[in-house]
């Protein structure tokens, strides 16, 4: 490589180190900038799919909301998922919003200051969602704190709070003000059960009431993400919450890697499943646009994927037990929040490096229309799956493998 090429490579690496993709906020924006319009349209069709046979429409939001996004520097995008017109049902359109954000203060700041700074940072973004007419809003996993769970330091437990604690009280006022359901993923301290901790999503109703909670079903033990130092697998099953705007469920972070977890929410009647997450580029980014979209298709519901953004550096280096040197951060949380629909269409993603609010209108009639079209529920063989799972759980389980009788026979 000559000096010119070497310099270009260094510049590209520098551009990527800030969380961008070759200097662009997202893959979608990189492609749009560098492809001819006709090429971009075809690539976009392949990457994002078509909703009822056409590209997703964008939504025009109030100028005041756009002005707030510019003032506070957060990415703002809005789209509309349509369903076919029906003869016996009116459209069931719900407006959904997702917020991704970085932390507001260094992790070395006093804990209360850190939490209050996040509240202050999110207020204008939540107000923007409310002013845009969002009916259901979801925040990212453990939004009220840095994602310190993989440091394995117990002092971060101080961020934990009961279901009716500071974060819920902070959000209840917005729920009341904007007639909005809010999903708040927190680090929960279970006062009634010996103050044990859980990774919990609190569902706040549009009247400011707490409808219920769901605790994270699957806890990762991979790389830095060994969260069982703080909390274990949840005990709330796969609840679906019937709200004023539809039936919703929450598949918290690592649960997205487990297809049966997605399935169970669908069997319980979910129309929208939210996936509030905290995941970094090196670990999971190739999976990110695939798993949620596949879940939406396979289970005939909408999926709303949220990931935090930024690099969070901690005062004490930690190791992963994988032989790599001690380090003070997990890597870059790549944002890229987006929506997926049951007809295989999906929105572009939010920025990979900036705070953001993405909004989508969803006609929930699309869920049943896709069930009717593909017949996945009708053609599934739950009896066979249940039998296999029941046998698998037994200590004397033997896989159903039929070997070629000639496989190990010696030949002359």
From TrEMBL:
Gene3D superfamilies documented for this protein: Carbon-nitrogen hydrolase (3.60.110.10)
Keywords assigned: Hydrolase
Catalysed transformations (reactions): 3-(carbamoylamino)-2-methylpropanoate + H2O + 2 H(+) = (R)-3-amino-2-methylpropanoate + NH4(+) + CO2; 3-(carbamoylamino)propanoate + H2O + 2 H(+) = beta-alanine + NH4(+) + CO2
GO molecular function, one term: beta-ureidopropionase activity
Pfam families noted in UniProt: CN_hydrolase (PF00795)
Enzyme class: hydrolase
Annotated metabolic or biological route of this protein: Amino-acid biosynthesis; beta-alanine biosynthesis
CN hydrolase domain mapped to chain residues: 94-364
PROSITE patterns listed in its UniProt record: CN_HYDROLASE
Domain of life: Eukaryota
EC number: 3.5.1.6
GO BP: beta-alanine biosynthetic process via 3-ureidopropionate
Annotated InterPro entries: Aliph_Amidase/BUP, C-N_Hydrolase, C-N_Hydrolase_sf
PANTHER family assigned to the protein according to its UniProt record, in alphabetical order: BETA-UREIDOPROPIONASE, NITRILASE C965.09-RELATED
Membership in a protein family: Belongs to the carbon-nitrogen hydrolase superfamily. BUP family.
Protein name as catalogued: Beta-ureidopropionase
Biological source species: Senna tora
């Amino acid at each position: 490589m000559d000096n010119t090429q070497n310099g270009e490579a260094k510049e590209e690496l520098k551009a990527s180190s800030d969380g961008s993709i070759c200097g662009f906020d997202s893959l979608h924006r990189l492609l749009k900038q560098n492809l001819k319009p006709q090429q971009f349209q075809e690539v976009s069709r392949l990457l994002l799919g078509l909703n009822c046979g056409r590209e997703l429409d964008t939504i025009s939001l109030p100028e005041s909301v756009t002005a707030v996004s510019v003032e506070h520097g957060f990415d703002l995008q809005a789209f509309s998922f349509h369903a076919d017109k029906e003869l016996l049902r009116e459209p069931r359109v719900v407006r959904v919003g997702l917020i991704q954000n970085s932390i507001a203060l260094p992790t070395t700041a006093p804990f209360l200051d850190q939490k209050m700074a996040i509240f202050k940072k999110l207020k204008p973004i939540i107000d923007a969602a409310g002013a845009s007419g969002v009916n259901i809003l979801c925040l990212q996993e453990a939004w009220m704190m840095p994602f310190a769970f993989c440091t394995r330091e117990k002092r971060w437990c101080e961020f934990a709070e009961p279901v009716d604690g500071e974060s819920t009280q902070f959000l209840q006022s917005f729920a009341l003000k904007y007639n909005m359901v809010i999903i708040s993923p927190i680090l929960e301290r279970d006062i009634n059960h010996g103050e044990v901790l859980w990774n919990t999503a609190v569902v706040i109703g549009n009247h400011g009431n707490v409808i219920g909670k769901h605790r994270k079903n699957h806890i990762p033990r991979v790389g830095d993400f060994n969260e069982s130092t703080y909390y274990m697998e949840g005990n709330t099953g796969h609840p679906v919450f019937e709200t004023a705007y539809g039936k919703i469920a929450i598949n918290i972070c690592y649960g997205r890697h487990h297809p049966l977890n997605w399935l169970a929410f669908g069997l319980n009647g979910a129309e929208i499943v939210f996936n509030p997450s905290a995941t970094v580029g090196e670990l999971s980014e190739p999976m990110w646009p695939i798993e949620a979209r596949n879940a939406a298709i396979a289970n005939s519901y909408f999926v709303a994927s949220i990931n935090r953004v930024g690099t969070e550096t901690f005062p004490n280096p930690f190791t992963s037990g994988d032989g790599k040197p001690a380090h003070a951060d997990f890597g870059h949380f790549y944002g890229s929040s987006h929506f997926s629909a049951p007809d295989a269409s999906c929105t572009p993603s939010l920025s990979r490096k900036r705070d953001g609010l993405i909004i989508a209108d969803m006609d929930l009639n699309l869920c049943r229309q896709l069930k009717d079209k593909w017949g996945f529920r009708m053609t599934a063989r739950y009896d066979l799956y249940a039998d296999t799972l029941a046998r698998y759980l037994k200590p004397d389980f033997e896989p159903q493998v039929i070997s070629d009788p000639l496989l190990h026979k010696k030949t002359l």
